[in-house]
Amino acid sequence: MFTNIIGWLSDVPILAAFFSISMNIAAAITGFLPSAFITAGTVAAFDLKLGLILLIIGEAAGAIISFILYRKGLTKLTSSFPQLKNNKLFFKLRNIEGPAAYFMVVLLRVLPFVPSGAVTLAAAYSKMRLLPFGIASTIGKIPALFIEAFAVSHALKFNMELQIAIFLLAAFFFLVYYLYKSYKLS
C-alpha cells in the first residue's frame, strides 16, 4: 500500500519526500509501527542513495519529536504516579547521563531487535538532553537503515513471485514469534 502511495506521489518528488519523512515521524511517535514498509516505499520511489538520505532525515526527526513528546508525557505520568520514582529500574534510567547515556542510545539503536520506541522512552526518562540524544540516535540508526535500505533495494529487483514468497516467509516467522511470546507469557 505504502509503495503504491509513494509511486503515485513520485510524480511530485518533493511531496513523496515529505510523505516519506512524515510517515517515519509517525512511526517513531507511535513507537510500534514497523518502518520496513516506509523503507521499501522510499527506496522504490527514489534510488538507494536519495532514499537512504530521506530515511535518515525521517528517522532523526521522528526520534527527536518523539523524545520531546515522551519526556512531556513521562513528566505528567511520574507526577500522577509518584511511586514510579521509587522503582529501581526507573531510578537507574533517571540518573543516567553524559557519555554513558550517549553510548547507550548509540548501542541500542544499532541493535536491530531493540524497539526504537523503547530506546526513545528510556532516553526521555533519563537526564539526557535533546541534542546529544538526537545525535546519538541518528548515528546509531544509520547502520541499521543502510542494511535495511540495501536489502530492500535488492529485494525490489526480484521477480514478483519471489517477493511474495519472501513476504509470506517473513509473515510466517513473525506469526510464529508472536504465538511463541503469547504462549510464553500465559
Automatic annotation (TrEMBL):
Q: Where is the VTT domain?
A: 33-153
| Pfam families recorded | VTT_dom (PF09335)
Where in or outside the cell it occurs: the entry states: Cell membrane
> Mind listing the UniProt keywords for this protein, alphabetically?
Cell membrane, Membrane, Transmembrane, Transmembrane helix
Instruction: State the membrane topology.
Output: Multi-pass membrane protein
Q: What is its main location?
A: membrane
Q: Which GO terms describe its cellular component?
A: plasma membrane
Which top-rank group of organisms is this from? Bacteria
Transmembrane regions listed in the UniProt entry = 12-38, 50-70, 100-123, 130-156, 162-180
Similarity field: Belongs to the TVP38/TMEM64 family.
Q: Per its record, how is this protein called by name?
A: TVP38/TMEM64 family membrane protein
- List the taxonomic lineage: Bacteria, Bacillati, Bacillota, Bacilli, Bacillales
